[in-house]
Amino acid sequence: MPRLSPARQQAVSVSVATGAYAISFGALSIAAGLDLWQTMALSLLVFSGGSQFAFVGVIAAGGTAAAAVVTSTFLGLRNGFYGVGLAPAMRPMHGMRRAWAAQVTIDESTAVALAQPADDQPARREGFWWTGVGVFLAWNAITVVGALLGSRIGDPAQWGLDAAAAAAFLGLLWPRLASRPAQAVAAASAVLALALTPVLPAGLPILAAAVVAVAVGWRPPASTQEVPE
Amino acid sequence: MTPYLWTWVAIVAAGVLAWATKFAGHVVPESWLENPRVHRIAAFVTVALLAALFAVQAFTSGPSVVLDARVAGVAVAAVLLWRRAPFIVVVAAAAAVAAGLRLLGWG
């Protein structure tokens, strides 16, 4: 049996690991009140874990559909920078190929691509496509499993799904807390959101945290090590 | 329009915006996104929103700040993350702790 290249090996393991937590997304989306088709559509169309958890989190908190869209989009802004980092490996790229590349441009596909040697652009392309497509297939398939499990559960709180949703956000946040400024932004954002919860309509306290990011990010850091990835 | 249909509109809008954001990175001139300030703010926006989503999901119920079984669930999640446990294990453990405490009649 031919051995897989390092890029493909990483792609497969990342796809399996990432796909597995689509089970929690599927279940939480149903707990938030979305149906199976809506849950599947989020995974197919939005296809970015953080944005999807944010969308159903805002809906679960009683926020408006508009607040869900804005929060989900803000959380996906980082995906806009990945195409730039991938440019040396991916460009030139046109038409449907570029449209598909955009859809699978996420944390994982970018990370595996950029983990390949900088002087081996074919390996980077291979890492990007295998991870992007692999995660896309696994994520969408396992979303359905999670949603079907979620719809068999009566009261989501009885099963601790509200705590699971909070843990999911903490898990997505954790790797981004390496620097002091990131920790400060996270702490200030959490406190601000809690302070505003009694006074603003649901969903807006979360968006207000973006102000903290702009305020902290506006001035250059004292050292270049302080900006999170 | 019913709330159900509005949710569908929101899902499609979120999908289109998510794709447009990703696509933009592949088509804009590289110099546009090289502005360090834009980079910093984008990185911090991700941290800020995830932290706010965590806080609201863990410690609020409607318009009130509350402490219930979720606190124990996320505390266990934090320890597991610190011990580098896989994401799915962290999420499942938080659910199990909160569900267990509620079964015992707390929170």
From TrEMBL, chain A:
Pfam annotation, one family: AzlC
Topology of this chain in the membrane: Multi-pass membrane protein
InterPro entries: Brnchd-chn_aa_trnsp_permease (IPR011606)
Cellular localisation: Cell membrane
BP GO annotations: L-valine transmembrane transport
Keywords, alphabetical: Cell membrane, Membrane, Transmembrane, Transmembrane helix, Transport
GO CC annotations, alphabetized: plasma membrane
Transmembrane domains' residue ranges: 12-34, 54-77, 128-150, 156-174, 186-218
Similarity section: Belongs to the AzlC family.
Protein name: Branched-chain amino acid ABC transporter permease
Organism ancestry: Bacteria, Bacillati, Actinomycetota, Actinomycetes, Micrococcales
TrEMBL record, chain B:
InterPro entries assigned: Brnchd-chn_aa_trnsp_AzlD
Keyword Transmembrane helix among record annotations: yes
Chain segments annotated as coiled-coil in the UniProt record: none
Pfam families the record matches: AzlD (PF05437)
Taxonomic superkingdom: Bacteria
Record field: transmembrane: 6-29, 41-59, 65-82, 87-105
Entry keyword annotation includes Membrane: yes
Keywords in alphabetical order: Membrane, Transmembrane, Transmembrane helix
Protein name in the entry: Branched-chain amino acid transporter AzlD
Species the sequence originates in: Demequina activiva
